[in-house]
Amino acid sequence: MPEAKDPAAIVVAALYRFVRLPDFVQLREPLLEQMVAARVRGTLLLAIEGINGTVAGSPEGMEAFIGFLRSDPRLADVDIKQSFCDEIPFRRSRVRLKKEIVTLGVEGIDPNDSVGTYVDAEDWNELIDDPEVVLIDTRNDYEVAIGTFSGATNPQTGSFREFPRFVDEHLDPSKHAKVAMFCTGGIRCEKSTALLKQRGFQKVYHLRGGILKYLEKIPKQASKWNGDCFVFDQRVAVTHGLEVADHVLCFGCGWPVDREAQQHTDFRPGVHCPRCVNELTDEQKKRFAERQRQWELQNREDEVTP
């Protein structure tokens, strides 16, 4: 786990575990009560197949909440990747009930039954240097846009539900003997490798702990990662050492905007960016601009209110 530079820093924990939770509906209220009591914010997803989410809070609050989570024997080995930031990146505490904790939309895919071979961050470079390995980024297009591994194939998906179609159209177990896949924290890869195993692929690998673990463990000078890694909170993206990167989200299209694009004349905070400026209607731009104006007014009022 990375060490906090400031003992008062906010702890951000991306966590998941595939495990049978037939009582997941009944788990919702106790988990939410513990989040509120520990002043932990963020969102957890619960389904019969397990738990997934990202939450944040003070070191003491997070320690108490994670301790409660792991007090359930089924969640004792929950996978947790921690990083730090100066301000809590979530506004609310939520626990949501879902059919899947990461939505693939294919019946019968269960990582509790079969997944690919885990590869630790320290061994990942050697694996992807193998010329026989087909390297697949299982994330969506807006995530891949700001960073990925050298040589990785972009499936060009808008949602994870589109990934099975990519597999059926572009991968063949008779031609692709070795397939390695990666994602942000590891959860999508577990579903992806389970899918490929069902489709008849034999040698399937995935990065244990995902990109976040790789960026934490592997120094920049030895890294095969290019760019930044999109995260699903107000930090937007992180880079090597899990440092917060210089990205903001465009309200118009939802894509991350890097520092250079933020200087472009077509970038208006809360309205549009160079990517979507010509895709929005004048009415949308007007509505978004008014929303941004109201938000800025409210923030100024909050700053001067004692």
From TrEMBL:
<keyword id="KW-0560">Oxidoreductase</keyword>
<dbReference type="Pfam" id="PF00581">
    <property type="entry name" value="Rhodanese"/>
</dbReference>
<dbReference type="Pfam" id="PF17773">
    <property type="entry name" value="UPF0176_N"/>
</dbReference>
<protein>
    <recommendedName>
        <fullName>tRNA uridine(34) hydroxylase</fullName>
        <ecNumber>1.14.-.-</ecNumber>
    </recommendedName>
</protein>
<dbReference type="InterPro" id="IPR020936">
    <property type="entry name" value="TrhO"/>
</dbReference>
<keyword id="KW-0819">tRNA processing</keyword>
<dbReference type="InterPro" id="IPR001763">
    <property type="entry name" value="Rhodanese-like_dom"/>
</dbReference>
<dbReference type="GO" id="GO:0016740">
    <property type="term" value="F:transferase activity"/>
</dbReference>
<comment type="function">
    <text>Catalyzes oxygen-dependent 5-hydroxyuridine (ho5U) modification at position 34 in tRNAs.</text>
</comment>
<feature type="domain" description="Rhodanese">
    <location>
        <begin position="129"/>
        <end position="223"/>
    </location>
</feature>
<dbReference type="InterPro" id="IPR040503">
    <property type="entry name" value="TRHO_N"/>
</dbReference>
<dbReference type="GO" id="GO:0006400">
    <property type="term" value="P:tRNA modification"/>
</dbReference>
<dbReference type="InterPro" id="IPR036873">
    <property type="entry name" value="Rhodanese-like_dom_sf"/>
</dbReference>
<keyword id="KW-0808">Transferase</keyword>
<dbReference type="GO" id="GO:0016705">
    <property type="term" value="F:oxidoreductase activity, acting on paired donors, with incorporation or reduction of molecular oxygen"/>
</dbReference>
<comment type="similarity">
    <text>Belongs to the TrhO family.</text>
</comment>
